UniProtKB/TrEMBL annotation:
It comes from Oceanidesulfovibrio indonesiensis. GO terms for cellular component: cytoplasm; ribose phosphate diphosphokinase complex. CDD domains: PRTases_typeI. Its EC number is 2.7.6.1. Homohexamer. InterPro entries: PRib_PP_synth_CS, Pribosyltran_N, PRTase-like, PRTase_dom, Rib-P_diPkinase, Rib-P_diPkinase_bac. This is Ribose-phosphate pyrophosphokinase. D-ribose 5-phosphate binds at residues 194, 218, 222-226. Residues 5-121 form the Ribose-phosphate pyrophosphokinase N-terminal domain. It is found in: Cytoplasm. Its main location: cytoplasm. The lineage of its organism: Bacteria, Pseudomonadati, Thermodesulfobacteriota, Desulfovibrionia, Desulfovibrionales. Pfam families: Pribosyl_synth (PF14572), Pribosyltran_N (PF13793). Signal peptide: none annotated.
């Protein structure tokens, strides 16, 4: 028996969900998501899902706790409606930076969120560029951690000249090396000293950036402090032009203002998190779509085909 494919979305990123449906040639399953005056959330699935293969598109972006709770309630509603298999499509996985104990008597929040989703009824998870790959081990269900690399490579190949991929810290070197290898580009690292959470001071550059287009690569831009410091240091070391490239545009606090006033000629991000309003405020933001990538993964999972072909 073939299960019907159903796509559902919460309120986190409905435009991305609709774009995925456009790629797949299907419609969004109608749902009701309301918030009562006391802040409680009401969820109702307005279509029959019994035995169906259901995919919920819901990044846990700001407000993180609201969207996470909404996702859990949708999962529970589908479980109680006897859906056949329920896959959570969470392009941006919130709490991913809290993946270990860094001080005594602290929670491992990324693990707790994984437990929330599993208990709520999730059969499988699709996400993009997890902050730490080992978070996949926090789940007792299959996890497909896709990479935005093919989306970015298609755009970066349009630029002529000598390109160098730059990691803003030592932890991102593997990611920058993967891009550099496929682009035939150079590799550099910005050495930084972190003084407090969400604050980082860039120190110096390891690698040759003189006269080159330097592309600072990271998995996310939060307050943009690290990125903007890296841009300044790269120009001081002779880079001809500096661009930023990050999968998840968290853009919290002063991020938009910092990027607008930064030395970046362009800030390339994806639509894992909706940034339409912030894009209007910062013309430097160039948003690429991951809808095609997610649509392919959903199609392959639904048809029981290999998902590993998407891991480049």
């Amino acid at each position: 028996m073939t299960r019907d494919l159903k796509i559902i979305t919460g309120s986190a990123n409905p435009m991305l969900a609709q774009a995925i449906c456009d790629h797949l040639g299907c419609r969004l399953t109608p749902t009701v998501t309301e918030t009562f005056s006391d802040g409680e959330i009401r969820i109702e699935i307005r279509d029959n899902v019994r035995g169906d293969d259901v995919f919920i598109v819901q990044p846990t972006c700001a407000p993180v706790n609201y969207h996470l709770m909404q996702l859990c309630l949708i999962l529970d509603a589908l479980k109680r409606a006897s859906a056949g298999r329920v896959t959570a499509v969470v392009p941006y996985y919130g709490y991913a930076r809290q993946d270990r104990k860094v001080v005594p008597r602290a929670p491992i929040s990324a693990k707790l969120v994984a437990d929330f989703l599993t208990v709520a009824g999730m059969s499988r998870l699709i996400t993009i560029d997890l902050h730490a790959g080992q978070i996949q081990g926090f789940f007792d269900v299959p996890v497909d951690n896709l990479y935005a690399l093919p989306v970015f490579l298609e755009h970066l190949r349009k630029f002529d000249g000598d390109v160098v991929m730059v990691s803003p810290d030592a932890g991102g070197v593997e990611r920058a090396r993967a891009y550099a290898k496929r682009l035939g580009a150079g590799l550099a690292i910005v050495d930084k000293r972190r003084d407090a959470p969400n604050k980082a001071e860039a120190m110096h550059v390891i690698g040759d950036v003189k006269g080159k287009l330097a592309v600072v690569l990271d998995d996310m831009i939060d307050t943009a402090g690290t990125m903007c410091s890296a841009a300044k240091v790269l120009l001081e070391h002779g880079a001809k032009e500096v661009m930023a490239c990050a999968t998840h545009p968290v853009l919290s606090g002063p991020a938009v203002e910092r990027l607008c006033n930064s030395d970046f000629s362009q800030v390339i991000v994806t639509n894992t998190i909706p940034v339409e309003e912030k894009q209007k405020a910062c013309p430097k933001l160039n948003v690429l779509s991951v809808a095609g990538l997610l649509a392919k993964s959903i199609h392959n999972i639904h048809t029981e085909s290999s998902v590993s072909v998407l891991f480049v």
